[in-house]
Amino acid sequence: MKNIPAILPEPSASGKVRRTLALIAGCVAACIFSSCATGVKDTSRTFSGVVLDAGHGGHDSGTTSRYAGREKDATLDVVMRLRPKVASAGFRTVLTRSDDTFIPLDTRAAISNRQSNVIFVSVHFNDTPRSGIRGTEVYYTSPCSARIAQNILNQVAAIPGASSRGIHTANYRVLRKALYPAVLVECGYFSNPIEGRRCGSCEYRELLAQAIARGILIQRRGAGAMLAAE
Ligand SMILES: [Zn+2]
Fold this sequence. Notes:
There is one protein chain. By secondary structure, this protein is an alpha/beta fold. It has two domains: 12-40; 49-229, 3-Layer(aba) Sandwich (Aminopeptidase), CATH 3.40.630.40. 44% of the residues lie in helices and 18% in strands. The chain has eight helices and eight strands; from the N terminus they run αβββαβαββαβαβααα. It has helices at residues 13-37, 71-88, 105-113, 146-157, 173-176, 193-199, 202-221, 223-229, and strands at residues 49-54, 64-65, 69-70, 92-95, 118-126, 136-140, 164-169, 182-189. α4 crosses α7 (202-221) and α7 packs across α8. The protein is globular, with a radius of gyration of 23 Å. The termini are far apart. The model is unreliable at 1-37 (pLDDT under 50). The site of zinc ion has 5 residues, from loops.
């Protein structure tokens, strides 16, 4: 242990002022930083609307695969199936796109950010050079989005033949810019022969839409209410 003087020298008046100013500056910086880092309005348990974001579109096809076609078509199909399910449960729905149009990521986030009391759900499909990889992943950035990610993942992974690759934090632009809780669902791998073919079928995309809708409802109402309503 080092020798510590029993009595610290009395700081000079200017030293006290400097230290006080540094302390105030530190607090202000910490407050500003934490509100920037988590500057998301936590509507995860109160939301009355859902922004549904079909990934890619227009000149941006997303991934393409011989098993499943173009990602932009699959994401739009899932979202168009998802919308009436979410709306019939009583939620306001907003789509970032409803046709084959390119929408910049910042615009997608802005569409969501100008709503009130919503959550943001982005739909994508995945690919990798390793064709053996399959399963659903859900990404989020703000901590208050984690439960939404988990609830959606649980429902998608419960589809017979589907599997979970977990929820993960990610700094994706469309999530990072969100002022409301936001998740990005990678529904499955186009690059896997089995999962790719499933993702390419209308039947499976209907199951995906049902599962994502159930995840959203469970998040808002709780699993008990959801089961009672069935
Ligand atoms: Zn994508």
